[in-house]
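Q: Hi! First time doing this. I have a protein sequence and I read that you can turn it into a structure. Is that right? Here it is:
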Amino acid sequence: MDELLARGLLAATGADTVTLPREVALVLRGGRVHRGLRHRPTEPAGRRRDPALADRTAAGQAFAFTRLVEELCEHWGVDPPGVLRSGGLAVRDLRRAAALLDVPEPDAALVAEVAYAAGLIASGGSVEGEWLPTPAYDAWLRRPLEDRWAALAAAWLVTERAPGLAGDRDERDRLLNALHPGLRRPAAAEVRAAVLRVLAAAEPGFAPDRDAVVARLDWERPRRRGPYRDRFADFTLHEAERLGVTGLGALAGHGRALVADGPERAAAALAPLLPEPVDHVLLQGDLTAVAPGPLTAELGRWLALAAEVESKGGATVYRFTEASIRRALDAGHTADELVAMLERHSATPVPQPLRYLVADVARRHGRIRVGTASAYVRCDDPAVLDEVMADRRAAPLRLRRLAPTVIISRTARAALVDSLRAMGYAPVAESAEGAVLVARADARRADPGAEPRGAPPEVAPEPHVADAVVRAMRAGDRARAAAARHGEAPEGEPPRSPVATTLAVLQEAIRRGSRVWIGYLDSQGRATSRIVEPARLEGGQLTAYDRTRAAVHRFAVHRITGVSTMAGENDE
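A: Yes, that's right. Below is the predicted 3D structure, encoded as structure tokens:
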């Protein structure tokens, strides 16, 4: 074994394991890279679809997915979910999004991930962070539907994130949530593009089976079978169907244009297949409105605010309720504006029950008002409060008179007391029950368990260790060339030389970065032969890359019996 290692016929991969170098394997196989070589890929198995039907099916999926992204962003713009401390979206928030969109949780995760990849949502808002739509979403919303889909599909095609991994666990058994930073996998985009190229290589309307796609990937890149390759291929086939890139398993015409020519050509190919948006609904006497097709962006957003979605399908049914009308009034619309909007966009007369509902809710809306106040000031003498309100120094306190004897302020209670005292008054603080609060300065103590905390210092490897690692990496690239250039390892007994000569040769090898042949006594006193690349000589220890063991070792200088230079060795 030692002789095979010394001659480079085996390479050490660990303390107890070795591997056969590729060059040796090639010689043993007679110069062939693979035992069996297929010059052409096998014919893929699959089903044939009507190309027109596949395109229409994909167009319907593209329309539905774009609307899902819009619906999710609109909802999160009003009620944004929080960002986990580890990043990502909480499981309960993903479930709420799935219920809102009426899709399974994996598809809801895909919608959120694609919107994130397209830059339509991002973390922001409060200190803790919230998932909110970005200004790019407003610009995206004003574009035609086919351009909106093309932007989503293009972002999905190049993103390095793997939405299908949402719900898995990492190597530390931590949950990978949707939008989690750990979902980034550089191989995801590469596999996604490879799978779509396989689909594009098939004739229009042909839907290859999953196993046929994986087999084609194996033929194209037989040595790129990573642990996630097959999973990423499965994710791509599923996600392409949900986004509308494929229809019934076959690559659609606009999907083929996306892969070959980019999003502009894909949008142009998709546009004729999309239904024309309508700007009217059919109001019915049971407080519902039927949308006979996809609504325009303006009408769709208004109905989402003023009504609840009751059912989806070929025609969407909206229902007007007290809560939905109140939501529209809270957004700043008046009763007259609501009725005028209904009259303008209804193909039928506005039913009387709907008019009554709007008028009744508007009559009761806003009768009770709720504001924000951090503190209040009360005094039995209204003249004193008149003096406070007239004082110019009270302007920063943002005071408001609610009653002759009550003033409220948005300033905190402690700050309000201090400000009034600075103005020459003598206020006292009171509790929620009206009792006077007596305060004293509490003694402050340090937390005995508190330790000074700071950023952990950056620990850089020692220069000689980094140098040895670099030498080890370079050795793998030049090992076989060096063996052919410098000949085989020396034969015979390990070298012997005086200590002074040994140290001088080692120091020169360190300076030049060359290899040397040393004799070394192991712990049992047996003489062994090593070919090493010295990196550092200090404290009676030689740090070097041991080429025969393929690892960095430290050698005790007093155990080195001698050293000899390698013939023709020079610094590279």
